[in-house]
Amino acid sequence: MDRLDRLGAISVSKGCYPGQEIMARLHFKGGNKRSLYRIGCDILLPAGTMLRDAQTGDEAGCVLQCARADDTGATGEFEALASLIDAKAEATLRTDPESAAIRRIEHFG
Q: 37 with 25, same domain?
C-alpha cells in the first residue's frame, strides 16, 4: 500500500479506498445485473461468443471460457462459464452466429 500512496494513487487521509467508485456506481445504478453461470452446449464456444434470447434476439450475455465436459473424448458435450444478464438467464438461450442450443446448469451467486 505504501507504493500506491507514493504514486498518489490512493489517499488514506480522505477515507477513499480502491474500488470505492465502482461500488458506489453499482449501488446508485441499482446493483449488479449480471452473474456468473455454468452452461452446457453441443459445440466448443470461443471466449467472447455472444449469447442471445432465442425468442427476442436480445443480448443475454457472453461466454468467458469453454471446455469439453469430460475427458473421455466423447464429442458433443461442452461446458462453459458465461456472464449472463440475470433477467435473461431463465430464457431459452442461443449463440449468436451458430444458433447452438444452450443449457443453463448452475448459477454462481
A: no
